[in-house]
Amino acid sequence: MVCLGNICRSPTAEGVLRARLTQAGLADWVHVDSVGTGDSHVGQAPDSRAIACAGKHDVDISMLRARRLTLEDFDAFDVLLCADRTILHDARIRKPRTSHAQVELLLEWAGMGKKDVPDPYYGSTRDFEQAFKLIDNAASAIVERVRERRF
Question: Are 103 and 77 in contact (CB under 8 A)?
Answer without folding.
Answer: no
